[in-house]
Amino acid sequence: MASCIFCKIVKGEIPSFKLFESDKTLAFLDVQPLSRGHALVIPKHHGEKLTDIPDEYLTELLPVAKKLAIATGAVEYNILQNNGKGAHQEIGHVHVHMIPKPRPEQGLGIRWPTQPTEMDKLKELHEELAAKMQE
Q1: Regarding the domain with residue range 5-133, which homologous superfamily does it belong to in the CATH classification?
Q2: What residue segments make up the domains of the chain, in order of their start?
Q3: pLDDT means over runs of 10, the chain (135 residues)
Q4: What's the pTM?
Q5: Strand spans (E) along 1-135
């Protein structure tokens, strides 16, 4: 996509601090980091959401994020991937964040608002989703 900042980085139109590059994947330092070593891993195929990306462009995302975690020496870290503005995605191109968490005040801060569930409803949902996964 012509106006996508990540596509421009892939094409070399915008400079980046590249950490890894292959024919399908690019990793670079985040220019607005939450902590030292915060990096992004992107597929070179443009797609806004994970479901828009062909599987062959997804195979390196987590292995590269793992290598970044090792390279930074992070003992604790978050691997984050958001889909859609409502899910806090700011750039409309799939990307995975590797965010070191060296101290409580650095890195990603999150809330995890769990919801009570009824086992009968959970069983129904399980059956529905398990059937769809077989399609």
Answers
A1: HIT-like (3.30.428.10)
A2: 5-133
A3: 91 97 98 96 97 97 98 97 95 97 91 90 95 94
A4: 0.90
A5: 18-21, 25-29, 39-43, 77-80, 96-100
